[in-house]
Design goal:
single chain, 3 strands, 228 residues, mainly alpha, three-stranded mixed beta sheet
Amino acid sequence: MFFHPMDFLIIIAFILAMWAQSRVKGSFQQGAKIQASSQITGVEVARKILDSEGLSNVKIELSRRGALSDHYDPSAKTVRLSEPVYRGSSLASLAVAAHEVGHAIQHANHYSMLVLRHRMFPVANLGSKIAPFLLIAGLLLDQSGVNLIGFGILLFAAAVLFQVVTLPVEYNASSRAKTKLLELGMITNQEERGVGKVLNAAALTYLASTLIAVLQLVKFIMIFNNRR
């Protein structure tokens, strides 16, 4: 079976994504073993940072979806933290809690990339669900499937662009997290490196998944051009 060079690039990107995912777990487990000198818990970190930003209206809840299910829900203005982060006082717990609060701060400050991401979500969500079916249908048909492939590519491109916009949003939230942790004295300068490892590993997963999506989009465009 003949493989196009683009296929090899996509395979390499998938391997990178798997490695990045394992690195996230490894970095979190490593960071979870190091207790912060402040002995503050993740939920306390979240509350202190939110209050320092005048966001007392943002709630903090315990997530019931297991480890690494931490997220900020803009519709409910709620930061949800997993059990290890919520109750933990490790560098990993502090890093993740502060990162999610970073998204809450972005929301409150109308951070431009986050606003753009929210506006793109409906189209990107539709594209990620429908585009694969259109692309498969277009590939199964003869010349008549070209238009389906073209429309599928447009929808898939919207989903890819959403992932691209997500990158600066995540990196900015991590930057805010480290700044606030240091500013409020919840970590020392020596502990910043440990926090950074956890945040950088998480950011790498977004970068890897975006790379896969971009390469897939390029491949679909090449197929479309050949079918034309």
